[in-house]
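Notes continue from the previous slide.

Worked example: a multi-chain complex. Inputs as given:
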Amino acid sequence: MAVNKNSNGYTFLFSTVMVVVVGAALAITSQSLKPLQTKNDADKKRIDILGAIQVKATRENAAQMFDQYVVERVAINYNGDVLNTKSGAIDATDKNDPFNVDIQKEYRADVKKIVKESGKNQEEMAKRLAAAPVSFPLFKCNKDGEVLYVIPVVGTGLWGPIWGYVALKDDKQTIYGAKFDHKTETPGLGAEIKESFFQEKFENKTLNTSSETVFSVVKGGAPTNEHSVDGITGGTVTSKGVDEMINRTLKVYIKYFESVNNQRAQR
Amino acid sequence: MSEVQEAIVEKKSEPLFSKKNRKLISDPLNDSNPITVQVLGICSALAITVQVQQAVIMSLSVLFVLIGGNIIISLMRNGIPDRIRIIVQLVIVAALVIIVNEVLKAFLPDISEKLSVFVGLIITNCIIMGRLEAFALANKPGPSFLDAIGNGLGYAWILLAVSVVREIFGSGAISFPGMGQVKFLPEGWFIGNGGFYENNNMMILPPMALVVVGVIIWIQRSRNTKLIESH
């Protein structure tokens, strides 16, 4: 071959062909595996939601168990007004379905910045969050005749995102169960929020609906009361992240629960 | 000139499993082990050896990327412009790794979640780029394939050895892909149940992986004295 492999023309040609071939191969792989991946993500979400009401599901029976326990899916806005209500089968393509609201994406896009910039200024944060395009899903469950409310929460730990689900009892104040997960917290320290010993501490604690601080995760070892739990020793930043996300998110739902109660009282 | 010479060499070419080619597989398992001798790919060896099943999946992923990369680069070796060869290698490796990641996400979501960023980090695993640059770029696909298997297995057995030690002492169990964690110690042995045994939490933390790798290197060198450098 008389091609000069070191010429600019050849190098350009080679790179162009390579990029096109590799790009096409990746696009085909990604597209053909997408349906499976979406299903896996949705199943994981169902397992986590069920985990908050202490129902153990597996990937195989997640969809069926979810339909069995979760009776209604509601999306509300920051002021606690209902945006959408759905029940029955989940349509994965329906963007209005509260189940399909990607709160982690919303958090990354808007909420995170607002929280960071507002700092301790609660008023400013409330004003800006109300204006932001975020919605808050709520899952009404029925477990053995008991009505439970599962609230997804999302926030930031030390290294990356943390998230979880908090289940409230029928009185909308007592925590039935909580489930947290993280992406990259330190194993043995912050990552412990994933462990049952930490999550069990939340059970039967109550929300302080009349106060600015709805619920708190206090520094490891400090005394706790009915509105707080012990944080993780050595995982202070992650514990604070849990505290922040629970407070910020649950406040919105308390507004919703109040308006529901008021409507009932008026009737 | 090279074409003629190559043709001659090709005619004389040896069978795939000649003595020299067999060494391509056996050497990396011991004398030139990528982790313990060349000290490449250490980062993933430290990070994902908490559980055996993660180590198995990681090893298989690295093996796949290494074999794929070695063969592709070896096939393309006469066409790759010298000036951009590292970029070409990187693109091939990155593409293979993304494919592995996507496949894991689709078929083994739980394990993919545990491996998280480390699958992506296979791209930066020095073993892979090292083999592509040092071997595949100058050899035919056959030997390159064997070289990939050898190095992949050399990486895999260290990972397995480390993860077995860490999981047994750290969690009192061994996990196999598809079976979950198998606890083989009787529950009564654990201190929480009034027994005498407690899991060593330090085993789960990354520094202990380094210590375990160190111990393996020590044992290997005491048995294979030619690895000991003279100072």
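Summary box: Chain A has one domain: 48-266. The helical segments of chain A are 8-52, 62-69, 103-118, 122-131, 196-200, 236-266.
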